[in-house]
Amino acid sequence: MAGVPVAVGDSVVIDVVGMTHEGQGVGRVEGYTLFVSGAVPGDRVQAEVQSIGKSFGRARLAALVAASPDRIAAPCEIYEACGGCQLQHWGYAAQLRWKREHVAGVLARIGKLPVAPLEEAAGEAGGPGTADAAQAGVREIAPDAGRAPVVVLPVIGMDEPWRYRNKAQVPMAAGIGGHGLIGGFFEQGSHQVVDMEACLIQQEQNEETVRAVKRIARSLGYSAYDRATGRGLLRHVVVRHAEATGQRMVVLITNGRDMPHADELCGLIRQDIPGVASICQNINTSATSQVFGEETRVLWGDEVIYDEIGGITFAISARSFFQVNPTQTERLYRTAVDYAGLTGEETVIDAYCGIGTITLFLARHARRVYGVEIIPEAIEDARRNALLNHINNAEFAVGPAEVVMPQWQAEGVAPDVIVVDPPRKGCDPALLATMLELRPARIVYVSCDPATLARDLRVLEDGGYRTVEVQPVDMFPHTVHVECVVGICRVDT
Ligand SMILES: C[S@@+](CC[C@H](N)C(=O)[O-])C[C@H]1O[C@@H](n2cnc3c(N)ncnc32)[C@H](O)[C@@H]1O
């Protein structure tokens, strides 16, 4: 390709100077950018060019010439094959530093926001990897913050960043030669299932439950669903572990309503899995890669399990969203409540509220809170959770937030604060438009995708709001994902 200094198949020695949002090392050859999978900043590598484009190419790490001081041996045996983690070969402190730089870079590039130099932000908080960062970093979000640069605080990391996930979602497939049943993870960049016995970011209870369910399913002769033919029974096994109560839930996602040997299945699960409180079947006959179908039925036990965060008890049903890292969730929610700046007099809307987790945290500090969420079972859980915790100033609605919010507006609901916690794709444009019409004094944005966050912040900034402070929280150590809580205030008073 004209103007590109390398060709496919070339071998080049490069210094790795950055990391992409997908976890590939970034290096340059005569100013031309190469993404090198498996490389980390600080490495000098011999890279074999695999593809080239006009502005960047991709390369394979052929040999490590000199290792970065932050490079470590990934502790997980299946790390190379598995698509679940991307950063296990990089020291945790370096991961946290990169996550903050990544967030700051995306806010500047996509959101066109002025971001305070990292040294200034570092001075605001306790430093990466410390829980103190939450306390030290949260400052008053006031309208007179004006157009000061956005402060992106150091990431709140975990003291022990392993075994944190309370939910495992395991795709099932036929074993070698199309026989038997395996379940594990999708190979990087494919839908090929690799059998898995252990995963270091899962809580041990989940590992144990998945192993037992696979063993039982094999003993009952269950077949695996085959995406190509649309035949076979078991699509996914989803298990949850509630850390505070020890309860476990097993959900078998099947390609049809028939659940052969259901009584025997439940008997064996109850016998082999301690703490199991709920066994459900979810039916998904769609040809999509979506995990859950619309219909869930209880095979044995309760339809929910119970967990606790920050002294509030939550009922969680099979399809409901519940944050996967309980230790970090409490830090995330406390930051969101701090940024809301409540005095007890405010009306608050929590959009994309799930089972009412943030809503109920907010309710303890507000006059009235409204939560909206699209999954009906999640709202059933949210209402149950309000009752369970004797919280009577919370009201919930089912539906798309972008539809329900204008209805509330028409009914005269006038929020002082709006909290949003959308899925990866960010807020619906109609929702952002309604938020700008409602003109709350503060907005708190909880985001799991810095790029869509930055896009939405630009809309809010153009509509009279200022992004004041961003607190990244490491909900997903050893992966490229990073969660952010953002304090935003209205400036066009
Ligand atoms: C990232 S989760 C946050 C849930 C909750 N705040 C929590 O921390 O547990 C996003 C939630 O938005 C819901 N959701 C997705 N699209 C939605 C929409 N258009 N309107 C309302 N809720 C939606 C999902 O079902 C999910 O529960």
CATH homolog superfamily of the largest domain:
Vaccinia Virus protein VP39
Tell me what the CATH architecture of the largest domain is: 3-Layer(aba) Sandwich
What structural class do you assign from the helix and strand content?
A: alpha/beta
User: Got a strand count?
Assistant: 22
- Percent helix, as a range, is 25-40%
How do the strands of the widest beta sheet line up side by side?
6-21-22-20-19-16-17-18
CATH third-tier fold name of the largest domain: Rossmann fold
- The domain tally reads 3
What does the radius of gyration come to? Answer: 24 Å
Mean pLDDT comes to 93
**How much of the residues is beta strand, in percent?**
25-35%
Highest CATH level, the class of the largest domain = Alpha Beta
Give a description of the structure.
By secondary structure, the protein is of the alpha/beta class. It folds into 3 domains: 11-66, Beta Barrel (OB fold (Dihydrolipoamide Acetyltransferase, E2P)); 93-159 and 322-490, Rossmann fold (3-Layer(aba) Sandwich); 167-317, OB fold (Dihydrolipoamide Acetyltransferase, E2P) (Beta Barrel). Helices cover 26% and strands 29% of the residues. It is built from 11 helices and 22 strands. It has helices at 92-109, 118-124, 132-137, 204-219, 262-272, 326-340, 357-363, 376-388, 401-410, 429-438, 450-462; strands at 11-19, 25-29, 32-37, 44-52, 56-66, 151-152, 167-173, 182-186, 193-195, 234-241, 248-254, 276-283, 295-301, 304-309, 312-317, 347-351, 368-373, 394-398, 417-420, 442-447, 465-473, 483-490. An 8-stranded mixed sheet has the order 6-21-22-20-19-16-17-18, sandwiched between helices. Strands 9-8-7-10-11-12-13 form a 7-stranded mixed sheet, with helices on one face. The longest helix has 18 residues, at 92-109. It is globular and about 65 Å long. Residues 125-138 have low confidence and may be disordered. Residues 321-323, 352-354, 357-358, 372-375, 378, 400-402, 421-423, 428, 448 line the site of S-adenosylmethionine. Keywords: 4Fe-4S, Iron, Iron-sulfur, Metal-binding, Methyltransferase, S-adenosyl-L-methionine, Transferase.
